[in-house]
Structure prediction request, 631 residues.
Amino acid sequence: MNFLTEIREGLSISWAAIRANKLRSVLTTLGIIIGIVTVTLMGAALTGLNQSFINTVSFIGADVLYVQLMDWAPHSREEWLKMQKRRPITVEQAAALEKELTLSRAVAPILTSRQRVRYLKDSTRGVTIVGTTDQFIYTGGISVAEGRFLSALETAGGRPVCVLGSLTATNLFQGESPIGKKIKIDQQPFEVIGVLEKQGTFLSSSFDNQAIIPLSQLLSGYTSKRDLEQIQVKVKNVADLDNAREELHSVMRKIRHLAPSDDDDFAINQQDQILTMVGNVTGTLATIGLFITGLSLFVGGIGIMNIMFVSVAERTREIGIRKAIGAKRRTILLQFLIEAATICLIGGLVGLAIAWPVTLLMRRLFPASMSLSIVGIALLVSLVTGLLSGIFPAWRAARMNPVDALRNE
Amino acid sequence: MGGETIHALREVSLEIQRGEYVAIMGPSGSGKSTLMNLIGCLDTPTSGQYELNGNQVSEMGDNQLAEIRNREIGFIFQTFNLLPRSDALRNVELPLIYSGVPSDERRQIALGVLADVGLADRVHHKPNEMSGGQRQRVAVARALANTPSILLADEPTGNLDSKTGREILALFDELSNKGHTIIVVTHEETVAKHARRIIRILDGLIASDEKTVRGDGAPPPA
Prediction:
């Protein structure tokens, strides 16, 4: 008997066996269904989380370098403590940087502060006030939805004008255009000249709750700090990122008067650091999550194994008959393996059919996405579960001595 | 063609020719079941040899034994041993499935043997929808499906009333007359006397081996 016939035969026998014990089959399959549902949902949630992380950081352009005191991904606590003690980055350094860099297109100094913003009687708290220059439009990954951005003249002159984040704008101006309106940041009046496109998604709505003003306004009105939090540098050509980074590095060392033997006392950060960090976090989450949900699938697999042992014991006589009539070990082995795999595959399919609408529901509260690869993996996993939990009982069946099996009542 | 040579049990040697109708008799514990298992290739002797149709069965492994059983032996059991969830046709098809006969041909053969045993109108009945006699006929049809060298019956009338028992034995006589080799293991004289040769086993030895005059009066073969 060739392999294909054996498979087809095994399928029809196992289908008959599954139907003959309907309640038992349903209960057994339930274990696998629950396992597949939890694993699939976990997978969908993890994929969704990952995507939203990536969306969140995607506004940080791949071609923007961030000059800061702190490295985004410090390697040790000692290193982190050391970075805390570094000399500040100053406004003058940012100005010098802008003059000296040749491979960069825009240099934007950044300093922020949290303030209350008012318009007439409406007010909103905790708005991030970003003090910067006109260059921020190039480095900040932002775009203007309405009005315009700060001009070079306005930032140089420190004019009292501002550009609002989309959330701040909707918080303060219900149904009317903010352009040209006077708002108050803390006590100082500002004229709104523009509103930004919405940029934040899950986890990052704070990016939309901001007001961008000229740096000198921020320095004079809202903070005692005199130093910058960061300098954003957008390179001219992303293909030339490494050279631009090298240039930035040497110019910064020069500006900060470091001797050749001194270590850097600043950090140049870029997007892939965040992506690596996020990747590490989601990787850990995925491992833990899938391990825990995998346990339920494992329990389901034990259920299958258990029921397959029962099935083999019940059908000892049938095995004896089949062997007497000419079934080989492989035939019997395949018959029971296929039965276990069929139960698990059916469980997998039903599990997916349940998980899919649940994913859609989940999506309302939480980012989740059920990709084709999750579907494929779920089916593969259920098949493998079936084969693994079936192999031991099937092997026992295949090894039975026909004389003893026939004697079984 | 060659004969079917059997050397079995303690110091036992036995030779059965193609076309013979042999009854093996003996009380329980005599070793007749072991002999039957050896003849049926369900088991191999610990020592000694068994040659079936030119094949050295005693040296075969599990899978070869399965193949030999499939090709050379047609079993008929006391308790019928049909697959309860499968209908008559499928039960008869089973040995053909294992020998790899394509499905159309398989169906034709199975329908043919079912008609031969008088069950042409019962092919889609399951075992629990049939009488004992009909079930045993299905078993006979299944045994015949692969045209084996030996029909090996173990107490074939043990679970039947005397009338249906007689019908099955008549079927055996008919098959024997068509040239099938039949070996019946039984403890009933009435069954044994249908055979043309009776081998009596006692304590693992052959106590007697004699030709008979059959119940239907047909002369023993030359």
Notes: The first strand of chain B starts at residue 4 and ends at 7.
